[in-house]
Amino acid sequence: MSENKDQKFVYDFTEGNRDLKDLLGGKGANLAEMTNLGLPVPPGFTITTEACKVYLESGEAPAALRDEVSAHLAALEAKMGKKLGQSDDPLLVSVRSGAKFSMPGMMDTVLNIGLSDESVAGLAAQAGDERFAWDSYRRLIQMFGKTVLGVDGELFEDALDEAKAAKKVTVDTDLDAADLKKLVKAFKKIVAKEAGREFPQDARDQMDLAVEAVFNSWNTDRAKLYRRQERIPGDLGTAVNICSMVFGNLGPDSGTGVAFTRDPATGHQGVYGDYLQNAQGEDVVAGIRNTVPLADLETIDKASYDQLMTIMETLETHYKDLCDIEFTIERGQLWMLQTRVGKRTAGAAFRIATQLVDQGLIDEAEALQRVNGAQLAQLMFPRFDEAAKTTMLGRGIAASPGAAVGKAVFDSYTAVKWSRSGEKVILIRRETNPDDLDGMIAAEGILTSRGGKTSHAAVVARGMGKTCVCGAEDLEVDTKRRRMTVGGTVVEEGDVVSIDGSTGKVYLGEVPVVPSPVVEYFEGRMHAGADDADELVAAVHRIMAYADRVRRLRVRANADNAEDASRARRFGAQGIGLCRTEHMFLGERREMVERLILADTDDEREAALSALLPLQKKDFVELFEAMDGLPVTVRLLDPPLHEFLPDITELSVRVALAESRKDANENDLRLLQAVHKLHEQNPMLGLRGVRLGLVIPGLFAMQVRAIAEAAAERKNAKGDPRAEIMIPLVGTVQELEIVRDEADQVIAEVEAATGTSLKLTIGTMIELPRAALTAGQIAEAAQFFSFGTNDLTQTVWGFSRDDVEASFFTAYLEKGIFGVSPFETIDKDGVGALVRSAVEAGRATRPDLKLGVCGEHGGDPESVHFFHEVGLDYVSCSPFRIPVARLEAGRAAAESKGSDSR
């Protein structure tokens, strides 16, 4: 982006507020908001996301930025009564990233900037603690070396381990000032050797280089991967927060912690978080030392604990949501370093939303916006069977719920490699760090032996909806030998383990699963009560009831038989949007289809169709009974006929072998001729859909007759069948007119024969670009459109789904060509534009045109919002996605109503 001369690139914490997240990032906006609330926030300032965008585009910081930073730094120095890097009493600052959307651990932070060989002595004198000063200095060199200069972090960790081993201690707090002085020397040598330069002694150089490093961290591989995973736009940039340092590593009366105003795993109210005495903030989230529960702070420092509880209540009431808080205590003085609306599990999201309604903090419309379909889908996953016989290995902290089973792997590379080969894996680490992100995404679940509910593994897993157990201290994880030891049991890489993110339990082997209570609720087998599962079900019930009240989109099911239709109805389906009749031609009926394909005469063809008619009719009778009173859209035969015949290679071999034995089967020979005749290079674009009905006399007429006779039988039995006949793959109105004329004639014949008046509607599936572009013409002959977005995506993009997803989609996703597969979420700019124009043209011709979608996008949360926006009447999806579609249809309606009111 081009630089504006009058543009302001730096804001003091006193100048911003929480509504400026686009400009100040989430962290900066919330630091400003807490400052405005009068909470104890260390003074500082924020460099805007606009400065980052200029830097990323041009490779240089804005020309005005240095002077603006200098002015704000001078104001900060005046406020603090000390200067950055001065030798006698130095001002130290942190440089921290902060994008609009939370990206925990994905971008860079550097603490203790301003320390040097000279100023470390001044800090020691000012604090009266030489050990603290040298500990802070070694932390700066370590973080700066890794983050700014690109030195391998393992080298610093190894040097720290060597220092502890030499002193025969296990934790870094047991190292004294002399040990830390030696460690600083070792760290500086590592920097000089690996970075090819000395560690910078000028404090302003340190700060400027750290700011550039934070800008650059926006485009690291892990940050880009996280954004793709969370669907965060890549052009937002990150803000940079420069904050005066406060120190939690000044001794036992100091410390650092992370707190939640409610349990992010369950949503229950209480005191949740982690605290670490004599430590700096990164120690907690990195999980390098096991923390104590936040509740223990009441005993350690009651005054700070009481003040923190008051601040937490203030923040939750102010933000009207679960807040995630970082704080530091410096010799008994509490400081707030960050707050944000906290990431939470799916179950916690539903519970918290309803709790806040009951507390009067939000209304039902806002509660609906606090949850989403992806979270509801997570709640529908199976859970471990508590009655199963298990071998328990240990127990950790239940950080992110779910039942995950897979082979143990001990590094991210192996997790990704095995996952791509089709293996389910559990990533096991002592603690995770941002470099493990790709392995965390690939794994079914994450297990760590260190860290708590606020560690990197826990926070990222919750954000992804991934099962996670942290801080399982009994597990000895040896990543170099690729094994985990628990007591006398050794788990080697490749051994199957199961982890329960709801209880924290870790099991050897595969534990069987049972249905989720939420699925049991949707199927009518569970009701809200008093226990934890029932409490969750009650929260889901309340939000779903509100979504159903406000949504405009109706939700139907894709179902091909009475069993699926009945399940869909229990899940809340308001009809069937797609019944694929080709599924009724499989199994024992395949021989009848073969007879139809092999028919040489009209009599043979009529005989084959007559044999299929009663079977088709029986299918439809059962379907109309299961969905009585609700619409049922039946798609006439769509796939190429060769799909109902034997495989060409297999049949050719069978015939060749038979001929060599001179006992060839006449039927096999005719079948082979038919297979060769029907074989197509690209059957998706060949003889299928409406084309079949036009070239095989009587085929569609038989299906229409079966539908009509089934509807008449059901109606005469006092039922209420509401059949809709859908013609597939239409590209021109003439095709539809010919088939409709034939269908109208058959329906009239059935009405006359049964003495029943049938109100069957006839429409088409819009799945070809030409159909979308000529929708106004096609609507003259169609009473409804159903968008087949699977095929429309294939024909718009020129993709054969079965081929491209396996061949190059992974590369396209990794390179950022796709943010998400166009088969998963509708491509609004291409496919979506055709849908929108077809809706407008169709309704211009026929204002009462019924419009729906029956591709897989009908159950995708983001796509449902698009279909609401363009004015469809319904979406249709597989039975298990119906609750998700219902919820998202409600959210779309509430969202658009909110936008209208604004």
From TrEMBL:
| A Pfam family reported for this protein in Swiss-Prot or TrEMBL | PEP-utilizers_C
User: Known EC number(s)?
Assistant: 2.7.9.1
Family note: Belongs to the PEP-utilizing enzyme family.
Tree of life domain? Bacteria
What positions does the domain PEP-utilising enzyme mobile occupy?
Answer: 423-504
Where in this chain does the record put each Pyruvate phosphate dikinase AMP/ATP-binding domain? 60-290, 298-347
Q: What is the organism field in this record?
A: Streptomyces cirratus
- State the needed cofactors, names only: Mg(2+)
Q: What is this protein called?
A: Pyruvate, phosphate dikinase
Q: Which reaction does it catalyse?
A: pyruvate + phosphate + ATP = phosphoenolpyruvate + AMP + diphosphate + H(+)
Domain (PEP-utilising enzyme C-terminal) spans: 538-889
InterPro entries registered for this protein in UniProt:
ATP_grasp_subdomain_1 (IPR013815), PEP-util_enz_mobile_dom (IPR008279), PEP_util_AS (IPR018274), PEP_util_C (IPR000121), Phosphohistidine_dom_sf (IPR036637), PPDK_AMP/ATP-bd (IPR002192), Pyruvate_phosphate_dikinase (IPR010121), Pyrv/PenolPyrv_kinase-like_dom (IPR015813)
Q: Which UniProt keywords apply?
A: ATP-binding, Kinase, Magnesium, Metal-binding, Nucleotide-binding, Pyruvate, Transferase
What NCBIfam families does this protein map onto? PRK05878.1, pyru_phos_dikin
